[in-house]
């Protein structure tokens, strides 16, 4: 279809430069890559384990109530490097932006141009969260940081 191409719409006083026109213009100045944003707002950018909305206490009419805070996420993984550093809670948008950057750079740097397993659509089990935690917990390479992260599968 014509979704995202500004066909049939009127943008008052501005050129219609969506989709491929904008991509072609950006390619003049640098590398352009399209990234699938699958799961980027739902997993931790430090350990690739699902995150949960932060919770807070609100007092209303003398009654304390637990509410979800939609602007931040918590990583519950005790081995998460970000959580160990004291940053287990992060802004939801900042976490998603980090994940998009990681996903995009992994696509650019991989030989087969595929994202890391946590960012691939349909690559995770859908019914068992505990197996998800086991399958995609990052393993630090025994030889040190210069070898990077490896994922057990």
From TrEMBL:
Protein's name according to its UniProt entry = Uncharacterized protein
The segment annotated Disordered runs over 1-27
> Which portions of the chain have biased composition (kind: Basic residues)?
11-27
Which domain of life does the protein's organism represent? Eukaryota
């Amino acid at each position: 279809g014509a979704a995202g191409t500004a066909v049939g719409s009127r943008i008052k006083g501005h050129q219609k430069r969506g989709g491929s026109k904008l991509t072609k213009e950006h390619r003049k100045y640098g590398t352009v890559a399209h990234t699938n944003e699958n799961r980027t707002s739902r997993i931790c950018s430090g350990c690739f384990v699902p995150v949960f909305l932060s919770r807070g206490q609100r007092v209303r009419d003398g009654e304390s109530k637990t509410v979800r805070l939609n602007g931040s996420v918590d990583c519950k993984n005790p081995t998460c490097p970000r959580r160990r550093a004291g940053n287990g809670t992060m802004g939801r948008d900042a976490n998603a932006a980090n994940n998009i950057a990681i996903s995009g750079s992994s696509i650019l740097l991989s030989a087969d141009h595929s994202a890391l397993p946590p960012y691939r659509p349909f690559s995770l089990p859908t019914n068992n969260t505990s197996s998800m935690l086991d399958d995609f917990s990052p393993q630090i390479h025994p030889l040190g940081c210069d070898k990077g992260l490896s994922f057990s599968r």
